[in-house]
Amino acid sequence: MAIALGACTAVVGQGRLGRLADARVRWIVLPPLALAAQLALGLWSPTDGWPESAGLAVYLGSYGALVVFCARNLRLTGMSVVLIGVALNTLVVAVNGGMPTRLPEDASDVRMRELEESVTHVPENDAAALRSLGQIVLLPEPIDRAISFGDLILGVGLLDVIFRASRPPRRRGGRLPAMAHEGPPGDDAGQGGHDSSVSPVLS
Questions:
Q1: What pLDDT shows up at residue 55?
Q2: Fewest CB within a 10 Å sphere: which of 63, 97, 107, 175?
């Protein structure tokens, strides 16, 4: 969602998405791998025979890959903000064995059971460590999901990265180099005369 908003912001801000290819992003394969791992874990079921510890290790590994990606691209404006968001999510997942997640009060029994059986998320409760960093911000319909403060920070950072990368590079210095003609000693132009062979730079 943040990527889509960033693309819209770039277009509205008179940027060009084609410039994103010129950003020279390093280790760009890591985010797709991390996303694929998290999507695969979303399909995990206790009946698959895989231990929860293995799933949690993969989940933390995906966040670790994102941390490395951000660290390798800190030269991009806004990437440091993305790194903070990813790091906060990684921390809360590590200390709780999953992302503490709050469900709405009217959540169905099916959603409760899915959360309890998830290998990547755990129910948010008073016993959760750093619970304020969990997914406790409930978004209304049609999104209908919970996000964390780390997600919010990450989203703001992505917006900044995409917007800045889509803008044309700034020119160094605000003035054009001065163009002057100075004739040799004794020349009429060098003594204040007019040299008809030199056209004025500005009209």
A1: 87
A2: 175
The structure tokens listed for 56 are: 């949690």
Helices of type H across 109-167:
109-117, 149-166
> Average per-residue pLDDT in the chain?
78
Our measurement of the distance from residue 50's CA atom to the centroid of its chain's CA atoms, rounded to an integer in Å, reads: 32
Tokens of 170: 């700034």
> Per DSSP, which regions of 23-160 are E strands?
99-101, 121-123, 137-139, 145-147
Which residue type is seen at 44?
A: W
Rg from Cα positions in the chain: 27
- Cβ neighbours of residue 100 under 8 Å, at least 6 residues apart? 92, 121, 122, 123, 124, 125, 128, 131, 134, 135, 136
Amino acid at the residue 16: R
pLDDT of residue 173: 54
Give the pLDDT mean for 171-187: 49
pLDDT of residue 9: 45
**What's phi and psi for 135, nearest 5 deg?**
-80, 85
The pTM assigned to this predicted structure is 0.73
User: What is d(CA 99, CA 11) in angstroms, rounded to the nearest whole number?
Assistant: 34
Long-range contacts of 116-124 (CB under 8 A, 24+ apart): 117/45, 117/46, 118/44, 119/41, 119/44, 119/52, 119/55, 119/56, 119/59, 120/38, 120/41, 120/42, 120/44, 120/55, 120/56, 120/59, 120/93, 122/96, 122/97, 122/98, 124/100
